[in-house]
Amino acid sequence: MIRLQHANARLPIDGCAVVPAKPNPDARGCLYEIYRAEWPGTFPTVQWNACVSKAGVVRGVHVHVDYQEYYTLLAGRGLLGLHDIRRDSATFGRSATIDWRAEDRCAVTIPCGVAHVLWFIEDSVLAFGLSSYWSAALDVVGCRWDDPALGFEIPEGAKSLSERDDESGSYAEMVQSYESLVAQHVKQTAVI
Questions:
Q1: What secondary structure does DSSP assign to 158-191, as a single string?
Q2: Which terminus in the chain has less CB density within 10 A, N or C?
Q3: Which of 134, 151, 146, 162 is nearest to 65 (CA)?
Q4: Which of 151, 72, 135, 84 is CA-nearest to residue 109?
Q5: Which candidate, 102, 96, 99, places its Cα nearest to that of 114?
Q6: Is the pTM of the predicted complex or chain greater than 0.90?
């Protein structure tokens, strides 16, 4: 398991990066800059979302075809699971489980083709930026969070899932669906 407690933490999956937040403390507390386009490891974002989750909630496993995500944990603690399903990646098939706490004050970048899940250990707030606008038509790829093919270090305890995540298929189905959608997406963008 990886801890993100220092700014030089490295992730073992190509394209996934840890981006330290910039603290600006004063007598009142601290303002943390969580995203600047000029920082190494970032990418332009067009949409930002915030997700409030209770302890025990599991979000994912999801993988995106058409956008990268920039995750930053503003409050709480969770485990972030990452798994590379990009066949052309040097880290294809590699997994990482990350123990992530808000006090780590960093962001994690997740490229297209990296499956990801968050298990919230504490009540938490996650903010995330997207490199392209969210599209329901392409946000359909995922699998069961506990599929052994993912190789995640799964925590004990109650799990609360959305209906979509609870009914997700297998790892093999996720990879097949992702590759099919990538091929369709490439064809559509080539025509435009």
A1: --B--HHHHT---HHHHHHHHHHHHHHHHHHHHH
A2: C
A3: 134
A4: 72
A5: 96
A6: yes
